[in-house]
Amino acid sequence: MRRGWSRWAVGAVAVGLLAGCSGGAEKNTSLADDGGGPAARAPGAGGGAPGYVKGGEEGGGADREPSAPADFRSTFALDVDTASYSYAKRTVRGGALPEPGTVRTEEFVNSFPQGYKRPTGDGFSVTADGARTGDGWSLMRVGLATGQENMDAPRKPAALTFVLDVSGSMAEPGRLDLVKDALRMAARELGPKDSVSLVTFSGEAETVLPMTRLDDGGRQRLRGAVAELEPQDSTNLGAGVREGYAQAAGHRRAGATNRVVLLSDALANTGDTDANEILRGVESHRKEHGITLFGVGVGSDYGDALMERLANRGDGHTAYISGKKEAREVFVERLPRNIGLRARDAKAQVAFDPETVERFRLLGYENRAVANEDFRDDRVDGGEIGPGHTVTALYAVRLKEAARDTDGRAATATVRWLDPGNRKPREKARTVDAAELTGGEIWSKPGGSSEGGGKGEEISPRLRLAAVAAYFADYLRAREPGGPAEHTETQESPHAPEPPEGDVAGASPLPGAPPPGALRAHAARVADETGDRSAAELSRVIGKAMRLK
């Protein structure tokens, strides 16, 4: 995927939450076109950082609204991964803080329900809202959601190749034993027309169950193969991935969902340990055979970065499981959703109005960035999104002072995808007015009271929960207690002030960030208001992380 990046500069912080859930009325348009070719490049887009022009210049390019200068656009491939948050929970419970590089903000936010309105059929609903966070900043949430799977309707069959790590490191409790439980769950949930194969790898890779339909005794053969799995020695991840894709390609079923499901701690230590070589093999099978990857991580020591790169290159998703509850969520609730498709190569672009917006920053999606001019180039990879999925992204937005009490347009959020059946491109968009970002304060309480003072119209508890998740991720990325966060390159508006002498570019914390104790209380409050157990769990994890710092 061709990426477009901008340097994080201290002081230019704007958080927009693009979330695939729905709430509130939509003000959007739905577009379909038959071209599918690349959009015209915005004038001046070749200057400066990739995809950017000087703020305030006339934008152009695509012959459709909205248009905005390239440096006031933010573009990324959709992502529904949640592994980063699941792994952080396990690490904190184990008495340690996660490494900052394993904390991906979008995966924290996407781990929580947002309650968005869903569309019927394929494609997306687009919703947006926001609230003030203080000092002239607002938090904007844009939500994308796909329709739920109709469990009564027939679905196309799946051909799944399970690639299992049986190396010595998988002997630790919560690794191979958990993988075996997960596969038993999958055996119960998959349909009789589905096919599965089972590949194991340690020092070498071996196909222990060739591609087998689950009717006519196939389900029992799968259970028998799983029961015999035992941990062995080293981890030749490259061999396992190659054998798994060879099985999937050799038994590819036309008209079916063909997917490799990798279950591993992703700690390669023998054979081909070059990540780039493994990644190239994954990408070639995706391009040649349309085989996608679903990566499931296990273990307290976990190769998070490699698993994420494998899933990104394989047009797939990642999840992390540390217990039977999470295994059930992944293999009983989520795996069926990952079999069907609602959208191929889905991308989002948010175009901010430079007459209204002074600064913005997309929070997260650093590894999913797309060059602005590639938004409508359907040769550039996006994300594969199944039924029942939601995508959430946050933008911190600073409106120009004169625009804070107006109804002017602040941004337009557009999602583009290819129809999973005919592969024609489609789009849906929603305009966000400035007033939607300034009507209330993010931590306001029912009845209009606000912890920050001033006007305080009631804010959606789901927006507040998303904010808590994002701020908590930023807290975990901090280099030291109370210090600035370790950020990678981030999509943001131009013309930010230079970082103070001795500081590191990208070290600015999010605007309006509450202290961790307040975040814990806000999560608990959402749990009380909504009965959401995931919010209560987040509150407990924040409390534990505070004690570890």
Automatic annotation (TrEMBL):
<dbReference type="Pfam" id="PF12034">
    <property type="entry name" value="YfbK_C"/>
</dbReference>
<keyword id="KW-0732">Signal</keyword>
<dbReference type="InterPro" id="IPR051266">
    <property type="entry name" value="CLCR"/>
</dbReference>
<feature type="region of interest" description="Disordered">
    <location>
        <begin position="26"/>
        <end position="69"/>
    </location>
</feature>
<dbReference type="InterPro" id="IPR022156">
    <property type="entry name" value="Uncharacterised_YfbK_N"/>
</dbReference>
<feature type="compositionally biased region" description="Gly residues">
    <location>
        <begin position="34"/>
        <end position="54"/>
    </location>
</feature>
<feature type="region of interest" description="Disordered">
    <location>
        <begin position="417"/>
        <end position="458"/>
    </location>
</feature>
<feature type="signal peptide">
    <location>
        <begin position="1"/>
        <end position="24"/>
    </location>
</feature>
<feature type="compositionally biased region" description="Basic and acidic residues">
    <location>
        <begin position="480"/>
        <end position="492"/>
    </location>
</feature>
<feature type="domain" description="VWFA">
    <location>
        <begin position="159"/>
        <end position="339"/>
    </location>
</feature>
<feature type="region of interest" description="Disordered">
    <location>
        <begin position="480"/>
        <end position="534"/>
    </location>
</feature>
<dbReference type="InterPro" id="IPR021908">
    <property type="entry name" value="YfbK_C"/>
</dbReference>
<feature type="compositionally biased region" description="Basic and acidic residues">
    <location>
        <begin position="55"/>
        <end position="66"/>
    </location>
</feature>
<protein>
    <submittedName>
        <fullName>von Willebrand factor type A domain-containing protein</fullName>
    </submittedName>
</protein>
<feature type="compositionally biased region" description="Basic and acidic residues">
    <location>
        <begin position="525"/>
        <end position="534"/>
    </location>
</feature>
<dbReference type="Pfam" id="PF00092">
    <property type="entry name" value="VWA"/>
</dbReference>
<dbReference type="InterPro" id="IPR002035">
    <property type="entry name" value="VWF_A"/>
</dbReference>
<feature type="compositionally biased region" description="Basic and acidic residues">
    <location>
        <begin position="421"/>
        <end position="433"/>
    </location>
</feature>
<dbReference type="InterPro" id="IPR036465">
    <property type="entry name" value="vWFA_dom_sf"/>
</dbReference>
<dbReference type="Pfam" id="PF12450">
    <property type="entry name" value="vWF_A"/>
</dbReference>
